[in-house]
Amino acid sequence: MTNTPRTGGRILVDQLILQGCDRIFHVPGESFLAVLDALHDTPSIQTVTCRQEGGVAFMACADGAMTGRPGVAFVTRGPGATNASIGVHVAMQDSQPMILFIGDVDRGMRDREGFQEVDFAAMFAPLCKWAARIDDAARIPEYVARAYATAMAGRPGPVVLALPEDMLCDVVEARDRPRITPPEQDPDGAAMEQVMALLKDAVAPVAIVGGGGWDAGCGHYFAEFATRIGLPVAAAFRRQDAIDNACPVYAGNLGYGPNPKLVERIKNADLILVLGARLGEATTDGYTLITPDHPDQILIHVHPDPTELNRVYRTDLPICAYPHEFAEMAALWDDDIIRFKDGDEANEEWKAWSTPAPFDTKLDLGMCVAAMRERLPMDTFICNGAGNFSGWWHRYWHYAGQSCQLAPTAGAMGYGVPAAVAASLRHPQRKVVALAGDGDFLMNGQELATAVQHGADMLVLVIDNSGYGTIRMHQEREYPSRVSGTVLKNPDFAGLGRAYGAWAETVDDTDGFAPALDRALAQPGVKLLHIKTDIERISAGTTISKLRGQR
Length: 551
Description:
Helices cover 38% and strands 17% of the residues. It is α/β, with parallel strands linked by helices. The strands form four sheets. Strands 3-2-4-5-7-6 form a six-stranded parallel beta sheet, sandwiched between helices. Strands 11-10-9-12-13-14 form a six-stranded parallel beta sheet, with helices on both faces. It has a six-stranded parallel beta sheet with strand order 16-15-17-18-20-19, with helices on both faces.
């Protein structure tokens, strides 16, 4: 118990300092002015002021993905919280640690449907790992410590804490809690013996990797192990930075539009080792690439949360362990597995698949990705939201190890620009690229103002085909030539970028992209390239004409 009484706002900020928080993202509200007042005297925490609460939550989610500790967001009650809910949903489905603090109505106003009142514990319970309200300022250290522990333990995810406005103004004594670290969770020797025995007996094994709690060390150790035994390694959906793509047994990524040869390899595998991934709908193509019962296939599933094991998939060998501990133990294990040739073959198939060939269109996004690969390092942060535009980078960009891909496995639009802001502030020495479709960009493009205000150094590519491309693709497949509700009338995105204070240009053909990229990369701060494409080339793998011809 401290000797000096403090306001609830001061106690809360002191707990964030003790937990190692150095940055918060917020849109201000009168409901947590006491916290903002405490932050005024806390130079060790950067206060990033955003323009919409969805951007706030996306930035916090991305920050947690990069650091492994919860990204921290503050929003006000009612409209602020509902706007921020999208980021909570993404953090949950992406298994990323995050804490959302919501300024709430005074305790004496509760249950009267006061101004902007919402029952946040009820609202967020289905969206997060834990949702609660702090009614006693003296218990703030307890709640914050539990929030950090919950967000990081097992399968990482978001926590939501409501903060009554009057509680934050109470002056009390409170005992601080020390820094929380996730528990150690190693696989036991007997389990590792079983893993090695099953691999030794396998004919065509495959590994699927990535997920919450993954770190650079995990990627290093697993790549070392997989290379040694020749095990093909596929990345789960939007987990392409789980291991360095330069790994000689990297086989590419699963999800939407994967390499058909990789799909066949997964289907023909007799053993599948899943490390960290949940085997969700996107990774498994609607639970069909690997079926929940997977006859004639042995499934080894390693995951830090016991509730994920045997949740959907019948698992032959479930191992509850953190990916890093398993990967390190595997890399150091003295096995006598005869090296498989499959890893080398799968890697050659991926290299061919991920090398773009020219396509007969005015602006060829495959060639644009090739130009970027020539000019930008592999550890460039590639940040994108949802849309067919991202498929060119999923297929053709080569990712370095963790972390350099910030992309929502939940498929939320509007994620790319906020994630890029978070990446630029977290790693100012590295290159950061935000990818956004035209529909995607206008979900959270206002965060360009945040980027400029806080000195972010990032490149934004707005891929403009004047339509909601992903939905148009499905529309043409199901209802050919009956276009309805998917056409967009867009602004001049380059002009809009300049209005926010960014350097900007428009590109409408392939030959113009590389010189414009060179000019953009020479600029400091925020730069934007407005890339105009033809919606006929609806994805990296097909055209509208082909879709119409399939019926």
